[in-house]
Amino acid sequence: MTPFTLSEPQRHLEAQIRWQPVELAFWLATLLPFVFAPNYLVLASQIAITALFALSLDLILGYAGIVSLGHAAYFGFGSYTAGLIAKWGWGEPLTGLAAAAVAAGVLGYATSFIIARFRHLALIMITLGLGLLLAEAANSAGWLTGGADGLQGVRMWKLFGAFQFDLYGTTAYTYSLTILFLAFLLARRLINSPFGLALRGIRENAVRMPAIGAPSPAHIRKIYTIAAVMAGVAGGLLAQTTETVSLETLGFARSADVLVILILGGAGRLYGGLVGAIIYMVARDQFSGINPQYWYFWIGTLLIAVVLFLPNGVLGGLTRLMRLVRSAA
Are 45 and 241 a contacting pair, CB within 8 Å? Predict the structure, then answer.
C-alpha cells in the first residue's frame, strides 16, 4: 500500500471539515427572523428545537443505518426531566438542560445494548415498542407527570439572570438557536472523523466492519447514546421555552414526524434534518392555518411529491441539480 493511498482518507476528512460559503450563508440566514420576521420568533424557536431533534435522529439513521420509530422516547424523557426540575423549584435553564441531557443519555446508553444486537425489521419493532412503553409509563404515573393533562407548574428563571422567556420568543429563539449551533458543531466534527467513516461502513455492512478493526456494537452504542443526549437536549429546550410538558413529547406521532422531516430534507447529509425541519414546520404552520382539521392531507401530499421526484430529499435533489449544471458548464 502506497503512502498516497494511506493519506487519502485523511485528505477527504480535511476537505469535509473545511467550511463552505453556502454553510456560512445558511447560518447567517438563521439570524434573519430577528430583523424581518420578529412576529414569528416563537415559530422560529420551534423550528430550531425540531431541527436539533432531527439532527439527533440523522446521526443514527442517516449515518449508522439504525432505523428508529421510538426516538421520541429520549426527547420526551429529556423534556420531562427539565420540566420536573423547574417544577420542583430549580428553574435555571442551563443546569436544567444539562440534567435533561444526562437523563436522556443514561436512558440511551441503557437501551443501546438492545439496539446494537438487532437490525432492520426487528430493530424497527424494538424501538417502536420502547417508545410506546415509555409513553404508557408516563401516562400511568400521573402523580409525577400529570398524565394526560400534562405537567403543570413549570416556571423558568431568567436566562443568565437577565433574559426572560417572554411571549415574543426573542429569548427562546436565541437560546434554542445557540444550542442548535453548538450541537451541530459537535455533530459536524463527529461525522467528519474516523469514527464517522466507521459509522458509514456500519451502515453499509455492519458484519464486515470488525474485520478492519471497527467494532460495530461498540460504535452503535456510542452513536446511539450521543443521539439520545441530543434528543434529550431538544426535549429540554421545548419544556423550558414553552413552560409545559405533555404526553405528546413521548408519542409515536413525534417519532413519525421527525422521520418525515429527515425524508424531506435528506437523511445522511447533516443539513438534511435542518432543512427538513424548516420545510415541515413552515408547511405545517401554513397548512393548519388554511385547514386546521385536514392539514395532514397536505403534509402527506408534500411527502409523496418529495419521495417521487426527490428520492434523496431536497438536499439530494439540489446536489444532483448542481452536478448537472457543472456538467453542462
Answer: yes
Number of Cβ within a 10 Å radius of residue 26: 13
Rounded to a whole number of angstroms, the CA Rg of the chain reads 20
Show the cell assigned to 326: 457543472
CA–CA gap between residue 255 and residue 301 (Å, rounded): 19
Helix, strand, or coil here: 159? strand
Would you state the torsion angle of the CA atoms of residues 171, 173, 174, 176, taken in this order, to the nearest 10 degrees?
A: 110
Residue 245 φ then ψ, to 5°: -135, 130
**pTM strictly above 0.85:** yes
CA–CA distance, 36 with 151 (Å, rounded to integer): 34
Tell me the pLDDT tens digit for each residue of 69-96: 999 999 999 999 999 999 988 889 999 9
Instruction: Tell me how crowded residue 173 is: count the other CB atoms within 10 A of its CB.
Output: 26
Nearest to 194 by CA among 211, 231, 219, 172: 219
Q: Report the first-to-last Cα separation within the chain, whole angstroms.
A: 37
CB atoms within 10 A of CB 181: 14
Nearest to 104 by CA among 129, 128, 136, 70: 70
Q: Among residues 148, 172, 166, 152, which one has the least CA distance to residue 87?
A: 152
